[in-house]
Amino acid sequence: MVSVLMQTYARAELGFERGEGVYLFDADGRRYLDFACGIGVTGLGHAHPHLVAALTAQAGKLWHASNLYRIAEQERLAERLVANSFADTAFFCNSGAEAVECGLKLVRKHFDETGEGERYRVIACESAFHGRTLATIAAGGQPKHLQGFDPAVEGFDHVPFGNLNALRAAIGPETAAILVEPIQGEGGIHLGDRDYLRGLRAAADEYGLLLFFDEVQCGMGRTGRLFAHQWAGVAPDVMALAKALGGGFPIGACLATANAANGMTAGTHGSTFGGNPLAMAVANAVLDVMLADGFLAGVERMGGVLRRRLEAIAAQFPGLVAEVRGLGLMLGVKVRAENRDVVARVRDNGLLTVAANDNIVRLLPPLIIDESHVEEAAAILERSFTEIAG
């Protein structure tokens, strides 16, 4: 019998009725410490009062009027993102995949405008994840995502993440852009170090390419800076955002320099729901919190606290934990057991985490955690690892 829901997810036999701060509650009232954040989405936790107030106020005024008209909160959000980034301009959509798609179109249109329409290929990285549309699974290049969807969208060349020599060797006369996650999330919390990101910028400048950062997961405060690439002191030409930008409300954004976006004129791109008043009100409320004095410094500090605690646990369980890696509050624990079994065990004990490639257990806690939440998570991990170790 066919399910009323397409069976595209391997869901846990668990559902939640409400959330409060860093916790989720199931139908029986059991509390779970949420270090998954809906895969890095609920960066300010659940039912944050400032976000609830902004959404409620907007819901009573206007939900949708379309991009045929000016949307004041959209203009305000764009101004704030531009003021706090490398960018000159922004396009709003509904998801990370849409933000990446916008960036890919922007790249092609840019070179068409400059009279170099033959330049359309994008160099991306192995183990990348850029979304689930036909173009973004081709950009990600992972066989498990491409299987059954042949022919793959053409125009992408893949090189090992972190390897500048391989990247430079892949540049040809048709190359238009370099697309990279500063920290690979789904790929296994692989961190692009500062020299690597600086090398990407240098290669793009040398060959006249656009540098495109996908910060859908690692952006919006997750690492202790508003954007992960800021740690390297470099700036891209294009950037995709989503997830925590809306704090749980669907939103995506493609940011770009004026030069990169030179071809994005009326009629070249659009979205029915993108930039709607509800999403804009919530995203502006998210920025209110994230841009407040001391917020990002607090994220950086708590990232250090969590990492040190995880490294202590790794030392306690060397037969089970191989490595702790990541930056800020985007951390991965590489385990020697099957990672999905570990995720299930810690979930049974009250902690939500997320599996990733390379046998990683991802920890993406709300950016509002304090030391008590770190200790609570650590206690659950220690209990779970003890049970697994037998």
Q: Could you describe the 3D structure shown?
A:
- The chain has 390 residues and is an alpha/beta fold.
- The chain folds into 2 domains: 235 residues, Type I PLP-dependent aspartate aminotransferase-like (Major domain) (Aspartate Aminotransferase, domain 2, 3-Layer(aba) Sandwich), CATH 3.40.640; 66 residues, Aspartate Aminotransferase, domain 1 (Alpha-Beta Complex).
- The protein is 36% helix and 19% strand.
- It is built from 12 helices and 17 strands.
- The strands form 4 sheets. It has a 7-stranded mixed β-sheet with strand order 4-12-11-10-7-5-6, with helices on both faces. Strands 1-2-3-15 form a 4-stranded mixed β-sheet.
- Strand 13 and strand 14 form a beta hairpin.
- Helix 3 packs parallel to helix 9 and helix 10 runs parallel beside helix 12.
- It is globular, with a radius of gyration of 21 Å.
Q: What topology emerges from the helices and strands here?
A:
Elements: E1 16-20, E2 23-26, E3 31-34, H1 37-40, H2 49-59, H3 72-83, E4 89-93, H4 96-113, E5 121-125, H5 134-140, H6 143-146, E6 156-159, H7 164-170, E7 175-180, E8 183-184, E9 190-191, H8 194-207, E10 210-214, E11 238-241, E12 252-256, H9 277-290, H10 295-316, E13 321-327, E14 330-335, H11 339-348, E15 351-352, E16 354-356, E17 360-363, H12 371-389
Parallel strand pairs: 3-15, 5-6, 5-7, 7-10, 10-11
Antiparallel strand pairs: 1-2, 2-3, 4-12, 8-9, 11-12, 13-14, 14-17, 16-17
